[in-house]
Amino acid sequence: MKIISWNVNGIRAVLKKNLAEWFAEVQPDMLCLQETKAKPEQVDLPLEFAGYHQLWNSAVKPGYSGTLILSKTKPISVQNGIGIDEHDTEGRVVTAEYEDFYLVTVYTPNAQNGLARIDYRMDWDKAFLAFVKDLERTKPVIFCGDLNVAHNDIDLARPKANRKNAGFSDPERAGLNSIFDAGFVDTFRHFEPDTEAAYSWWSYRAGARGKNVGWRIDYFCVSESLVPRLNSASILADVLGSDHCPVQIEIN
């Protein structure tokens, strides 16, 4: 089973680039998208997506945030959000239940410049972790998406310069540590514990992607019980169309 996650930074924009052709080539079992920035009625998915179930969660605010799961298999159930009103207006979470796991895609709030939204971000981290741990009481969980934080120095090109910036501040990193301490496994680091310069996001400024001055902020995390079923975890850095690239796992 191939599952791919991608922050597309606007599904309508990336459809004008390479999304349909790339999708037809890779044919994932599930594709999880973040930052769709659209409602389903605003998007005409081309024929390449025929046969996939579309699980949308759009933000109340037009052109903002939003998540989507495209799935070959019809899920047993679908839930939008995490069940907390203050967190569920921005379309940040879709959960699909399958026979032996839950698949969650998430677009974690950005702490913003000057950490202006750090308090909200910390509340979100706690609430999201409680949500996925509650799911895990029923069956194992796979969650993926843009977590808007690099974990360690190895996960961004310039750690010293960004120590106090959004995406690498101590509170955000502590929030991610809480996820790992709760038993979820960073699949990429499971297979590639020491690989450097492996990034999933690059600023549009100063030719950052061409220079590979990036950050690894897109993840697949799984319940520990699923680790024996993992075949691979990878970053598809050669796929263009967004300031993020897709990340992927293959699992039995």
CATH class: Alpha Beta
How much of the sequence lies in strands comes to 25-35%
Number of domains: 1
Question: Largest sheet, if any?
Answer: 6 strands, mixed
Strand adjacency order, main sheet: 3-4-2-1-14-13
Tally of alpha and pi helices: 6
From the alpha carbons, calculate the radius of gyration and give it in angstroms. Answer: 17 Å
* Averaged pLDDT: 97
Gross morphology is globular
Order of helices and strands: EHHEEEEEEHEHEHEHEEEE
CATH topology: Deoxyribonuclease I, Chain A
Cα(first) to Cα(last) distance is 6 Å
Name of the CATH homologous superfamily: Endonuclease/exonuclease/phosphatase
Alpha-beta classification: alpha+beta
CATH architectural grouping: 4-Layer Sandwich
Total beta-strand segments:
14
> Unreliable runs, pLDDT <50, ≥5 residues?
none
How would you portray this structure in words?
This protein is an alpha+beta fold and 252 residues long. It has helices spanning 11-15, 19-26, 118-136, 170-181, 187-191, 208-211, and strands at 2-7, 30-34, 53-57, 67-71, 77-80, 93-97, 102-107, 141-146, 184-186, 201-202, 214-215, 218-223, 230-235, 247-251. It has a single domain (2-251), classed as Endonuclease/exonuclease/phosphatase (Deoxyribonuclease I, Chain A). A hairpin with a 4-residue loop joins strand 6 (93-97) and strand 7. The longest helix is centred in the middle third of the chain and has 19 residues, at 118-136. 40% of the residues are buried. The mean pLDDT is 97.
